[in-house]
């Protein structure tokens, strides 16, 4: 094995989260030998949901690096300057960057990083006396530590799984092939951002003119993402550090209560939707072929001829309703998943009572292997680090936290000034010091 195949850190996957670690590791600060393996030849960010008029829920300064290394050459601003569109970007006064532009930024970063191997899927990871052995499409590597960044898996309700196909699909597949909704009855299930993006595109005829378009949500209404200042304090290192120290049941309660801070629909998308509905059905007077059904939980799906019948239960009355559909799209989110290539090590990872990985403060998974070899996991700690964990907001800080831990020193300065909110109880001693 050549020296370049012996690594301090091997990354499985190079989606934005591991890519952020790769981008920060590509500096003189850590001096770590790293390599991140990405199975896609041409990295596109969630290609199955790359739809027209879809935007980031997060500010563009929360890119791969800026929060901890604003002088990095892998920032979104560097991308703009290198593409000679810095001034036009400013003139466009974009509230949020389009997903297409952010995806292009990620691809630009991935292609220029020498520690990212594109088109090289990880096939197997094993542990022997000298550390991890990683077999990829292109060769064998040895690594001291791993970073798991293979993302989440689309989640469908059990009753829909058996009928999964080209007309009963998860939102994450919608843009993968050409689709034709012309003359069809289309039902979208799920009241989050993906449901909204799909409903709006269907309403605008992106896949042809549907005969009927119904949008079903378990939520009480089509609810906005809370992007206000104090709510955004949940997306700070200070809050996240304190959160990690809370008991499991307290963390679960807080995450549930904070749902709309991370899982609502952007106010801009809601406004576009409302205006589109108003224009078509109130101004132009089209017969009302598109309708919204909040407060309904989808509970069953069955075949009916060439189509489906979706059954819902009303959240206020308990009434059951039945929707005939030719196409049902489930925008029902994603669930945690460890990749098959890790099968040998998976049973050695500790799980909590809910089956989630047990993560330490530096995102290291608890396992029964030697302490000299750690397995870090990104996008796997909503239960341990809070609602920011599956989001882009803190990825640069998390990446620096992991790299500092591996480097064994503060390669990145993560110290902060005191914030305005006291999240934790103040001991009497601290009160005395504060006065
Ligand atoms: C449509 C959509 C929009 C989102 N928008 C936002 C937003 O605006 N703001 C926000 O904060 N968050 C957003 N999120 C949440 C989150 O930021 C993203 O899901 C983000 O992509 C998570 O990054 P990741 O690196 O963990 O996983 P992924 O992006 O899923 O990347 C995982 C990568 O691992 C690769 N891989 C898998 N298995 C292997 C293997 N065996 N070998 C090699 N490579 C492998 C995959 O090809 C993939 O590229 C969004 C999520 C979705 C689905």
UniProtKB/TrEMBL annotation:
GO MF annotation: an example: monooxygenase activity
Pathway note: Siderophore biosynthesis
Cofactor(s), by name: FAD
Top-level taxonomic group: Bacteria
Entry-linked Pfam families: Lys_Orn_oxgnase
The entry's keywords: FAD, Flavoprotein, Monooxygenase, NADP, Oxidoreductase
Entry-linked InterPro entries: FAD/NAD-bd_sf (IPR036188), Lys/Orn_oxygenase (IPR025700)
Signal peptide span: none
Family to which the UniProt record says this protein belongs: Belongs to the lysine N(6)-hydroxylase/L-ornithine N(5)-oxygenase family.
UniProt-recorded name of the protein: Lysine 6-monooxygenase
